[in-house]
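Lecture 7 notes: from sequence to structure.

We start with a single chain of 612 residues. Read the sequence below before looking at the structure.
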Amino acid sequence: MIYFNQNDTQSNSNTTKIRTQIDDKFKWNLTDIYPDEKQWDKDYKFIENSIPKYDKFKGKLSESAANLFQCIKFDEYISIKLERLHLYSFLSKDLDLNNNHYQEMSGKITNLYSKLSEASAFIIPEILQIDENKINKFLNEDEKFKIYSHYFDNLFRTKEHSLPKEQEELLAMVSPALQTASNTFSLLKNADLKFPTIEDESGNKVEISEGMFYSGLYSTNREYRKRLYKNYYKPYIDYKNTYSALFNGNLKAHIFNAKARKYNSTRESALKPNNIPLEVYDNLVQTASENVSSNHRWAEIRKKVLNIDEIHPYDFYVTLFPESKINYDYQTGVTIVKESLKSMGDEYLQILNKAFNNRWIDVYESKGKRSGAYSSGVTFGVHPYVLLNWTNTYNDVSTLTHEMGHNMHSYFTGKQQPYVYAGYPIFLAEVASITNENILHDYMMTFAKTKEQKLSLLETAINKIITTFFRQTQFAEYEQLVYQKTEAGESLTPDSLSSLYSDLYKKYYGKGVIMDQEESYTWARVPHFYYRFYVYQYATGLAASELLAKMVKDEGMSGAGKIMRFLKAGNSAYPIDVLKQAGVDMTSKEPIQAVVNKMNNLMDQLEAILDS
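Now the structure, written as tokens:
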């Protein structure tokens, strides 16, 4: 049963607390990593003193199985300690970004990573110079080394894209120059760009910021949203030639790297290292394109509920049902998450409770603490941590189950797999977390008592699909188009970049949405376009999670068992195969179509409630 509006002693004040005012049970226990900083310093010095020992392996890896595996084991041992050092300094710094001591500690780790990378840089090139048959002979010489079979298979699978030593060194030398466009874009967007001053909702003069733009689009004051939206885009339009030059520079840098490494395309260079077939990308874009009518339908529903004559891009974020807000204190959120995830089985719940009861989660905002939320990921030999900034909203509950999905994925992977496979690629990173969100939605709908609660939950679930599936697939298709045109030798001007984006926006959102000129310049402001075929993984992750959540609902413990196998697999197989073992085939259209079907079902439910 769900209980709302319970009091929580840590969440009643509107003022930001200092760290000492928060009960320890709501704060991270970092002694699980190191009992004190003396131990941190001890490991740091150990690694510093160990770096020269890499030299004894140079040029000798092919001589014997013993040499090769001693080197690998030594590198793993050092890496495990370094990641532990990093986790401690990273988390400590995020608890107080103004603390110079932890800033300094973080800087020391960055320098240590650099030194270690330089010292160990010979390992992969030397391994790739060994004949693959000889590697297989080494593996068969000692049973305990067979565990590295997949590791070596993955290395040699892309051997053709590795270059001779001199060429690799040349690419390394030119790498900083190739990052100039991306780095300049980041500096311009986050540091140097000046936005106009406008009137806020209360009539006060305020200068627009990135954070203000995103939060302002949720405002129920439409004139304010419009004013904010149009003025936010002004500097991007004013500097369209600069942004176009940076955009094209980034494309050409990635194309250069892909060609230098003998890939057929930049897209292949992004997908092949994780053994993702191009058909996965193609299925996503094609199936989403065939079903954009679902997105168009949602635009018409929003237009109707908002009671507006025409709908603009700045009308897509404001909530349709503001009267349905409910306060959820942290303890209530924990109860809801635990109850909703009972379907995952005893093993999952045991570790989930361990996380809640043993200070793996830092709950409340405090002075100097990093904003937002995250899970720290896999650090071998240490449990993962979760950062929150709880504000008593349903979004906090959803964020909690999302981050605990990451947390459990990292925990089970780290526990089940040896170090060499104790992690997972971006392609799999969002699957467990969004699966939890889907399970939470079904649970909350079961207990929702009022029409307003149900409508709000349905809207939240639909918006998740719009932003994570349709919008990211639109970005993915845009990215594919601009790379194809640039690889074919076309020159992309600000006008052509805007025209391409405008055409895709109209396709995905429909004729019923007014295409404001400002929206066509979205290409100029989205940092993900600088990451090289990254965003499609948000959409595929959501698609995979939809089928996994459905398995739990339809198959009970059998479905939960498939998810547990997924959570424990890590990098022990290629990501496509990891999902196939869990019952999800991302090379087919089924997962993509399942998202569309889910969205249509959610809209059917929402319209039925509205009609009633």
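The beta strands are 197-199, 205-207, 361-362, 374-375, 386-387. Keep this in mind for problem set 3.
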